[in-house]
Specification:
This protein is mainly beta. The protein has 1 helix and 9 strands; from the N terminus they run ββββαβββββ. 5% of the residues lie in helices and 43% in strands. A hairpin with an 8-residue loop joins strand 2 and strand 3.
Length: 110
């Protein structure tokens, strides 16, 4: 965390014109981040804003983080190292490993 942002430190710089995207279901728009060198920032409040839970009973939502290449192909991102957790209002927001071994943003009730 830096200020109100969750910051991902990349093992290597992204290819030119590639972006990291938090893929969210329609009608909620995806969140796209512009990389700065080997760091990518996502505003923690924007991660939860308008994003409904996948399961209304548990309140959990899990969104894949993908690299969107210039040809619009989405490539999964792997998490090496520790994830991060932050409290945003009444939500817990985690950068974590998902069921498929790739990086996800998981939000749940506090």
């Amino acid at each position: 965390m830096e200020g109100g942002d969750l910051v991902l430190r990349l093992a290597e710089a992204l290819p030119a014109d590639a972006r990291l995207v938090v893929a969210r279901p329609d009608p909620t728009p995806d969140l796209t981040s512009e990389p700065t060198g080997r760091a990518v920032r996502f505003n923690a409040c924007a991660l939860v804003a308008g994003d409904p839970p996948d399961d209304p009973v548990t309140g959990v939502a899990e969104r894949a983080v993908v690299m969107l290449r210039p040809d619009r192909r989405a490539v999964p991102v792997l998490l090496a190292g520790d994830g991060a957790t932050v409290v945003v209002g009444e939500r817990l927001v985690d950068f974590a490993v998902g069921w498929n071994g790739c990086l996800v943003v998981r939000q749940s009730s506090r």
